[in-house]
């Protein structure tokens, strides 16, 4: 019987800790009915009942995708901006465009350098640079 009491006590403590973490990490508009400090006090002074009350009535419940709310009469949540830059298609598109422009500029400079080197080699060998007619002998 003592083991059962210990197990129930541990379940209560784990539930209270989870409720405290959830309450502290919830955004201000995601808390319903009472202010955050009131929920924290209820969870601390009445761990079992307060934790269950927090999960049932205190927090805004959202669907897995976070786009709709299960709360009665709630509006669908607005689409939020991506958290990480690699999740933002606009950011990824701008990187791709910037990379493409840099590649084109680099390719243009390489071509100019190659033409200049070819012309230098032709001058050394006595041939006219490309684009100029050869002198008739």
Task: Report what the structure shows.
- The chain has 2 domains: 2-70, no CATH class; 86-125.
- It is 61% helix and 0% strand.
- The protein contains 4 helices and no strands.
- The chain is rod-shaped.
- Mean pLDDT is 82; it is low at 65-70.
Portion in helices: 55-70%
Give a quick account of the main beta sheet: strands, pairing sense, barrel closure: none
Poorly predicted parts: 65-70
Averaged pLDDT: 82
Question: What is this structure, in a nutshell?
Answer:
By secondary structure, the chain is mainly α. It is 61% helix and 0% strand. α1 packs antiparallel against α2, α1 crosses α3 and α2 packs antiparallel against α3.
Topology:
Layout: H1 2-25, H2 36-45, H3 47-58, H4 89-125
Helix pairs in contact: 1-2, 1-3, 2-3
Key traits:
single chain, 137 residues, mainly alpha, 2 domains, 4 helices, rod-shaped
């Amino acid at each position: 019987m003592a083991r059962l009491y210990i197990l129930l006590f541990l379940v209560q403590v784990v539930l209270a800790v989870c409720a405290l973490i959830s309450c502290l990490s919830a955004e201000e508009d995601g808390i319903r009915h009472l202010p955050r400090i009131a929920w924290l006090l209820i969870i601390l002074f009445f761990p079992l009942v307060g934790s269950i009350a927090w999960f049932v009535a205190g927090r805004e419940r959202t669907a897995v995708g976070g786009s709709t709310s299960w709360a009665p009469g709630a509006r669908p949540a607005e689409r939020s901006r991506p958290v990480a830059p690699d999740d933002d298609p606009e950011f990824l598109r701008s990187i791709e465009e910037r990379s493409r422009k840099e590649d084109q500029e680099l390719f243009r400079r390489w071509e100019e350098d190659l033409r200049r080197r070819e012309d230098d080699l032709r001058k050394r060998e006595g041939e006219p640079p490309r684009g100029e007619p050869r002198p008739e002998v």
